[in-house]
Amino acid sequence: MQIQDLPYSDPGVPDARSGPRFLWWLWRNQLGGQLKSLAWGLLHFVAVSALPFCVGLAVQAVVDRSDTRLALTGGLMLLCGTGIAVGDTFLHRTAVTNWITAAARVQQLLARKAARLGSALTRRVAAGEVVAVSTGDVEKIGWFVEAVSRFTAAALSVVVVCVALVVYQPALGVVVAVGLPVVALAVLPLLPRATRRADVQREKAGRATELASDTVAGLRVLRGIGGEELFLDRYRRASQEVRHAAVRSARMWSLISALQVLLPGLLLIAVVWHGIHLARQGRITVGELVTVYSAVMVLNYPLRHFEEIAMAYSFSRPSAKRAARVLSLERSTATEGIREAQVPGGDLYDPGTGLLAPAGRLTAVVCGDPDAAGRLAERLGGHATEQGRSVLLGDVALDELPLDSARTAVLVQDKDPVLLSGTLRELLDVPASGTVRAVDALAAAQCDDVLDALVQGSLDAADLMDARISERGRSLSGGQRQRLALARSLITDPEVLVLDEPTSAVDSHTEARIADGLRRLRSGRTTVVFTSSPLLLDRADRVVLVHEGEVVAAGVHRQLIDGEPRYRAVVTRATDDELAAAGTGALVGTADKGAAGAEADSRAPEAAADEGALVGAGQERKESEESA
């Protein structure tokens, strides 16, 4: 794999059982690049290590006054210099290629996992950890993967030099062969402590990144309540903790670096002292002493790679552990029972709660617990974060559908939708049936003032669709972001659209118009809206009350608010005592005031009859499944 061939057509299935296993999987999948890097590394290091022998031969040729051997040695040195230059050039090229391709593979794996899990990813893993994995951790993992081949080449070169010295001059070669392993392995007892300090530094850095991400995301709210300084102080403290941890980690690595300089120096002193003693006895020549001395000096260069691989592993191990944790996440029941990319149709039914959303109708769901409503919305879309029975669309379980088919069949818009930066055209360029035009979706979502705000912020845009949207739509209000997200969802025109509190941040007049537009544009399509707004509830074909995880009542808005106290308490935000004091009729009249109320009255008998059949069908279906 070359850099120009990126991205991978298929990054593969990673071994995410642990950080080391993930690193080994990455290395194995780049075996070709690793072997190339190893070959060029061997050429480079062996050429560097051969220079001392050339120097020794040249010195001995001068001592012996042999012009022929001196010329031959000069040719060998020229050959070594060429090998050093060529090997170093291509070693750097292949090493950087291995680094970038490994990082790119990890990024593709993370992007694929994020696409499969969707919003469930940040509920299982902290947002700051996801950011850390996809940025700094990717580079550290790539660093270790590419450093392995260079370290292997350096280690093999050290072995070759030691063997050559033993053969060339046994008296001094044995000293070097015994001393070099001690020098290389002496820092091993310090590595666990250095690794632990590096882990602490990475953990604190991840917490600081998470805190910074959360602070930036909530900056608008923080400014509104005057909490900027509080969060800035928290970030300063977290930043100082990272600094202290980094200093402690650096101290340990500086000690390791010092030993990497001190121990080879002591070995060199020992070799020179012993060599001079042997030379005085006439057991070695001057050229042999210079050769061994130069070899020990040059070996400091490949020995530095022992320190580098230790650092690379200690820094990449926690990074690989975090990456493996993210990549090991799966859908709650990720079966692939149906292979065809077909989109089923029919009623949407949740066996867990007994919720039934009839095909082609607008169903409103009232749930007193917002968190429970969010979990139920996720389950209706096949994105359940907890194990349980699958939601059925028609007679097909969503969990058994391929992911693409499930997302085509059911689209879920959560209560905090994300707007990506770019133009309005890019925001609305989503997979769609082609039936709903962008202008119709924007009109139904009441985005006129949103478009005006975008145009004012993009004076250089010749076309309205080229108006720029800032990162996460920060320049827009919460209600404006909600309406743009609703328009984006309406354009996709899925078989089933699930909306979780789509109008919680808009005023009542706009909400009423959105309710009419939603009902009109989704006519004939299945729509499920989680809401407690009387304006939306009054326009729904069917209203379902979910209490403590089960459907306890179903009907139309007026019937439920008259006859179901639990429903009335959620919708009116009032207790039974307050309702009794103020008069239920007055409250109902206030909530359902307007022409929509008259329309609801006119269809109430017919809706009641339909509801009886639907409730009976849903109950019968649940009982039959429980008995089965």
Automatic annotation (TrEMBL):
The chain crosses the membrane at residues 38-63, 69-91, 147-168, 174-192, 253-276. It holds the Pfam family ABC_membrane. This is ABC transporter permease. One of its GO terms (cellular component) is plasma membrane. Residues 619-628 have a biased composition (Basic and acidic residues). The keyword Protease does not apply. Keywords: Membrane, Transmembrane, Transmembrane helix. InterPro entries: ABC1_TM_dom, ABC1_TM_sf, ABC_transporter-like_ATP-bd, ABC_transporter-like_CS, P-loop_NTPase, Type_1_exporter. PANTHER family: ATP-BINDING CASSETTE SUB-FAMILY B MEMBER 10, MITOCHONDRIAL (PTHR43394:SF1), ATP-DEPENDENT PERMEASE MDL1, MITOCHONDRIAL (PTHR43394). It comes from Streptomyces roseochromogenus subsp. oscitans DS 12.976. It is found in: Cell membrane. GO terms for molecular function: ABC-type oligopeptide transporter activity; ATP binding; ATP hydrolysis activity.
